[in-house]
User: Fold this.
Amino acid sequence: MWLNKVLNPKRNNKMKLIKKATITLIIVFVLFWLFCLMTGYVIVIPVTKYIEKHIELKQGDTINPLAKLDFSRGEWKAYFVVSKSDYKNLTNSITKAGVLKTINIVDLKTMQKEWLFRYTGGDMTTAESSFYVFNDGKLVYRSGIIFDEQKVGLQSREYGWLEPIHKEMITSGLKNFKRVYWPVVFL
Assistant:
């Protein structure tokens, strides 16, 4: 061992640098994870494609955007990604976190039954929070969600701005979602 150190000092310096760099990266990652745990902050990286369809509707039509999803087949996951600006507007019934998730089919079926919206014929450009539904790893529904004090609703390219029939139904649908503890989430 000591002969190797004497004969190959450059290799030893390289190994020391690799060890230091590895330890530094681990410490930075742990500190970042702790920061995320304490603040609820999560980095969301969108990686899945979603093809939005244009749907012809008349102003005032009642829409159920989850109606065509068959929750009895496959593995389902739904995510609610909360923007920093909407974070403060969340009610106490929704867990305070940057990303919430459910795999509970009963909750998803309840949302499917209760999420009724009125088509306004307009658009809102300020939707910073998002709602994603995945089936067997494929993104099957995506929409922006607005939790403003004056406005609550969904915004998507498919439907435009949808106002809930009952203002609290979005909140009640998301109340059983659980916090995602990973500091980075790929959706």
Notes: The first helix runs from residue 2 to 7.
